[in-house]
Amino acid sequence: MRTVIFDLDGTLADTSGDLIAAANACFRAMGHEPLLDPARDAATALRGGKAMLRLGLSRLGREGDEAAVDRHYQDLLRLYGEAIDTHTRLYPGAMEAVAALDRAGYRTGICTNKPERLAELLMTRLGVRDAFASLVGADTLAVRKPDPAPLREAVRRAGGDPARAVLIGDTVTDRETARAAGVASVLVTFGPGGAQVAALEPEAMIGHFDELPEVVARLLP
To answer: What's the whole-model pTM score?
Structure first.
C-alpha cells in the first residue's frame, strides 16, 4: 500500500501562536516578561518546546542553561496542553489534499516530534484526527525524527509498506528522516522556512496543498 506521511507543526498546521503563548506563560511563571514574539520567533516555536526555552533563556543571558530547560520543559508542555488550539490553524487546502489522496488509494498518517498525547489532542480538537490512519509522536518509540524508525512505524500503522512512502514536511529534520528511510520527501514553502527549504534538496516542494496530489502521484505512482 502506498502511504503519505505528514509532519504536523509547520506542515499540516501553523501551531506557532499557541506554542509561543505557552512559552511566554512559562516565562511569566518564572518571573519574567514575555520573551518570545509570535511573528519573529515562529520558526523557533515549530522546532519545539525546548528550542523556545533555549531562545528565551538566551535573551536573559542564560545561553546554555540546559538544567533550566529540563526543569521547565514539563511546565511548558502542561501550559501548552491547556490552550492547544486557541491560535492554531490548518494550512489552506491541507484536508482537501488528504481527502484527494484517500480517493486516489493512498493511506495517510502523521509522524511528528510533538509528544504523542499532545499531537492526538490537537488533531482531535481540530476535528481531523479520523482522517489519518496513524499518528506517531516524539515519544511513541524510544527514538524520534530524524531517526527513520518513527516514519516507518507511522507507515506500518497506516497499513502501508515503508518502502512505498513519501514524507511531507517543512524542515531539515523531515528531509533527513526521509533520506534515512530511503524514501522521497516533499517540503512545503508556506511554512516559516519559506523558499529556503530548496537548499535542502528535497525530491519536491509545494507552495500550496493544491499541488500535493499531483506531486505524490509522480513520486509514488
So the answer is: 0.94
